[in-house]
## 1
Amino acid sequence: MKYLVITILTCLLCFIGITFAENKVLPAPNGIEMPMQYKDWRVISSSHREDNKTLRVILGNDTAIEAARSGRTKPWPDGSILGKLVWKDTEHPEWKKATIPGKFVHAEFMIKDSSKYKDTGGWGFARWKGLNQEPHGKDASFVQECFGCHAPVKNNDYVFTQPSPMP
Amino acid sequence: MKYLVITILTCLLCFIGITFAENKVLPAPNGIEMPMQYKDWRVISSSHREDNKTLRVILGNDTAIEAARSGRTKPWPDGSILGKLVWKDTEHPEWKKATIPGKFVHAEFMIKDSSKYKDTGGWGFARWKGLNQEPHGKDASFVQECFGCHAPVKNNDYVFTQPSPMP
């Protein structure tokens, strides 16, 4: 009987632990959950912004990578997710004319679902800030800020990223 | 008999086709073969060089990614391969203060094998230029150029790349 209680308690603690670990990143205010495993996605492109001194790497889930590599990005197919990792520029200690990723700014995502997100160009937007991955936005209206910024690239399916040429 | 001949000929043509496709990228002059599937590797970092106006993304094979994510990069373990994709800067058409990957310059690799490449810091170097992936270097001595350039980062296991901070 004692061993049964110990076993049940151990299982319960494991379950609580796993649940806590899985939910440690809060969803964005519009309900979008952070895409799991995004750090394992493949690369689509990169960019450097002189105005806010940031370096960026743009990754894609499998659907996005297949679309990018076959030129099917106008529009991107439903199911595509683009993930942008953003760092502040910092000077390379041994190559002064180079900048490398410094402080991690945020990871932001565009999720293509042309019916679910039809009011924002078919894209769901979300961003998690800093290494502690705090959701961006006070309420669900934050997406208007995202969508407004992406309006100039409406003719590129609201996406700034252009897949990099690769062999 | 006729069908047997047709079948054998078809198999032979397929074999030649597959062989040709697999070997279309020539090895580097030091004998290093281009690592297959490098475009599917995960990202370690990025950089922007002001001196030659290039954007870079640094990828790693599984061994390198595991090392980078667990801070075991001094030295990088044998079996690690770092791949750097380099593009010329080009202005983003809709965001003038941003540069994005333009012309593809080259893909270059560092392969860690501390015994095989002990004369060059434990690293084998190779580079393939342009979208047609032409091997860099007239003969095997080209690695001295690579190794000389990496000498200033001897204390970082001859590697310029520093894994980017990520959540």
## 2
Amino acid sequence: MNTRLIAPIALSLVLASPAAAQLGPGPCEDACTLDQVADWALDNDRIAWDFVEAITTEVGPRQAGTEAEERARAWAVEWLEEQGFSNIAVEPFDMETWVPGESHRVEILSPFPQPMVVQPLGNSASTGDKGIEAEVVGFESVGALMAAPNGSLKGKIAYISHDMRPTQDGSGYGFAGPARWIGPGIAAGKGAVATVIKSVGTDFRRNPHTGGTSFPDRTTPIPAGALSLPDAANLERIFERADGKPVRMKLVLTPRMIGTTQSGNVVADITGSDPSLPPVLLACHLDSWWNAPGAFDDGAGCGIIAAAALNVAKAGQPLRTVRLLIAGAEEVGLWGSKAYAEAHADDPIAVGIESDFGADRIWRFESNFRDSNPDLHRQLAQSVARFGVADSGIVASGGADLNIAREQGSAIIDLQQDGTRYFDLHHTPDDTLDKIDPEQLRQNVAVWTQVVGILANTAGPLKRSE
Amino acid sequence: MNTRLIAPIALSLVLASPAAAQLGPGPCEDACTLDQVADWALDNDRIAWDFVEAITTEVGPRQAGTEAEERARAWAVEWLEEQGFSNIAVEPFDMETWVPGESHRVEILSPFPQPMVVQPLGNSASTGDKGIEAEVVGFESVGALMAAPNGSLKGKIAYISHDMRPTQDGSGYGFAGPARWIGPGIAAGKGAVATVIKSVGTDFRRNPHTGGTSFPDRTTPIPAGALSLPDAANLERIFERADGKPVRMKLVLTPRMIGTTQSGNVVADITGSDPSLPPVLLACHLDSWWNAPGAFDDGAGCGIIAAAALNVAKAGQPLRTVRLLIAGAEEVGLWGSKAYAEAHADDPIAVGIESDFGADRIWRFESNFRDSNPDLHRQLAQSVARFGVADSGIVASGGADLNIAREQGSAIIDLQQDGTRYFDLHHTPDDTLDKIDPEQLRQNVAVWTQVVGILANTAGPLKRSE
């Protein structure tokens, strides 16, 4: 055991916050095996919960590029220090920053006047304080919008619907997502003065799902907002009951671009015993949308990767360094992922793994080296079967913050979480601590501990040339 | 069968809205028994759904005393005409009207700055546009607040918590409700400049539960708001993590009293064959809070009573008139109930029944004549046992809109609905159509049809002198 590593962790039990002091006794009296540590984490881990509970309480929402995200970085550095990580650093980068503004209102003016609930999409333009009043024209899908003649939306507000259903693997997002990702840009190209979409989500709460949209290069951004799903359903009933009469809407959204500001990635290590070996990179993101404290997205992910790194060290100093990449500005365009990949293009990593899909249980193991290194793939998959995780032939492609792994062609693992209720909460004000099931969170930590521990103690290349 | 009654109903199938036209074929080819109609309603009723779907779509929120509630009355009159009710009338009354204003914001200033979600309570004063900044002091209950020394809250914002759990009979409301009903008044009396409460509810969504509060006679109203339950939980964690450091809050709420405006009750009859007999009075309320279209509270209730009245007529003209009281301004102080009781003090009613507890299934039958008229009590209880309704020895006391029944000492029946999820939605923006389970809604209609049909065809006094 490496006392240099263990000492600060033990110290944190005395000096750190009350929450940290409750992290409790270790998994075994003396030297622990990795399996023992992972089993212990399943029932006892408190590190991941402590991270997400503390950041959602002490920081709250942390929109990329803003003062709140800067506070989150300072907070994360302090937390990582308390936990005993090494080489803690902020790696700053510049970004172009969008902020949501203060006014987010929508109402139907006729034929059935009533207020609704809306929030702006990332990169939305502003309507100005006085708002826009126009007829709203409904499209049942992005496909239907695409089929509308050019210029046919001149002076109109476009409403874009979709039909998203919950799925365990989150695949419904791929079908419904374009309504948000490209819908407003297409509507703008056809002359629309604004767009409202049915929130890309699967719940029925009056809390819109925001998220980034983008406009093609020569298209001037227009105001773009998401209605909550109950409001979208109501608007669709209004179209039906209006029976051909025009439906007029007033929309007020006042987001703005505030120019270049600074964001940053936070990195931290559990130092390995052989510095010549490329590290195991564990990624999550620090930023959230302004409308929620980001418990599922992605406070939980950062808690899980930090807990896994610390737990691995409980079984002895690993061979490889385990590095955390707590990325900045993910939500608004992967600024942190791109900056990290560029800054560390010449620093090889052994493998990249990301946690950014909530806090529900991991159900499937995927790697991108099942063919090139079948023994390692099998060893890893077998090691987590006892936590209810299935093996898979799907080739892992990694999460948003793993640009570096994709660009280096390194090994990648995806520990797929149950996404059935993820899109009930995704990018909504409802992404709060109470949504996290501590038992499922600990299952994540146990699986991550097991996988990261094996990877960090495997000397040879993980993904072999095929 | 009375053709005068049936004709307009049949007519409505041709002339009325497309929704009404879908109400479908009747329960049987020729003369129907009441049991047949009730059984048919269990699987086939569309009237209640049509009402609540249409009012939430075509009217939306309808705050008492405002233009929106006036639109709702006009809408209700038209709907009742389409359904073939008789003696449809609006009975106007004056009221003192509170409106919520535009700005509802709260943020923690220190030690952990972040925005939260708040909505004003009915009768809240305004902070002014610039808001109030002050230290917030937490109380775990109204009892703890009461124990605070007089003057000890001078210049402070009081936060009042509680511990409400879901219950089938809604009894948790009685324990937690005082935090809202009297908490702000008590805090004001001790010098507080404002109050925020943990929403009186049982969900974990970022949607506050509003509702009326009141201030004692010689206490000047202060601004009073409800935090959503996740925000209240967060504030409590902030107190804990602040570790004695003052927690400062900025609160902006801009409600106002707008003076005397007009509200009104909407009444309508299914005329009985013996006008000398006192009518059966079915009550619900038309107004909702401004923040939701009032599907559970109380669009569903109005749909249920209207459907029951129309269904009873399908078994032939009843002996007694069945009268709907669709009350105005219930939420803000039972103005409609009081006005109706006063205006009709000399018009005896036979029995009062109200539906105002959502749209989930009825599970218990209660009357206030079990002792005085045990045969009728037993007949009614037995008649709805096949719909899964239990008998009860609890003495019915009637809902908020049945002041007239209490003042006249008439018979009262309570058809108790399952309230397990009622306080997830109560007075929140989430009280929308999608929350209604059509199957449970129809069970309500079936039970009501059965009970109202028996009552409307019982000639003698329902509640006998004891």
## 3
Amino acid sequence: MTEKAFQDYYPDNFSHCYGCGRLNKDGMQLKSYWDGAETVCHFQPRANQTGGFPGMGYGGLIASLIDCHGTATASAAKYRAEGREMGSNPPLRFVTASLKIDFLAPTPLDQVLEVRGKITEIKGRKVIVAATLSAGETLCAKGEVIAVLIPENYMAEK
Amino acid sequence: MTEKAFQDYYPDNFSHCYGCGRLNKDGMQLKSYWDGAETVCHFQPRANQTGGFPGMGYGGLIASLIDCHGTATASAAKYRAEGREMGSNPPLRFVTASLKIDFLAPTPLDQVLEVRGKITEIKGRKVIVAATLSAGETLCAKGEVIAVLIPENYMAEK
């Protein structure tokens, strides 16, 4: 795949997130892409990301997948809504104001997980993303991310 | 501290959670305790658990702290409500059905974080816990965990 992921456009000094920063060498380095009007991210969990159930993923993993894919989706959606090229300045980087997850089925660790995002609302500095997390045909979790654009002057100062 | 944490009473085969399992050697091994009618957990973040903001924690870390402390609080609250000793059989181990987090301020990585839990409701197999996450005087996040008791026969089979 030669296409750049949403996260590959984040400014360097905002690219150290353990979930999705390309510059966090220990992190999960999630990669999100457009798939039509939706967004998609695939991730192979690590064997030690176990949850309470043997062989299943822990809540923080699932939360991170939905959270990081949600803020990435918000960034891409905002660029698209403004008719701008991904990564053009000023950068559109989002943080999470609110995260809601419903855990519907245990999330296996032994296969690639798929996270999908749908843009529910874009209004001012806020983007709301609805997300699903699936393992094959099994819907493991549903979530909602309310993402807020980081002020331009804050990013410039860092 | 010689007092055992809630997580130290979990059955061995349900003690591999990356967030709170005492048998996950790579994990965070969170420890939760009673503090009167509330519960408390302290955790020193790791330097690589960075979020989008430089020097601040990532969403999955914050979610995991609230999630794991929430299910531990649910377990302890259920034992207490039934007048039973922690760890007595059958084990009372909970999973998360729903998790909601409001991120109120960036969470620093350079100090010990405090997670507190309050039991909002105990009804049948369900326990609802309201949680806060603070760094010193700063309230960084608020959350709600809806936890559900794992069926006894499921635990016995594993």
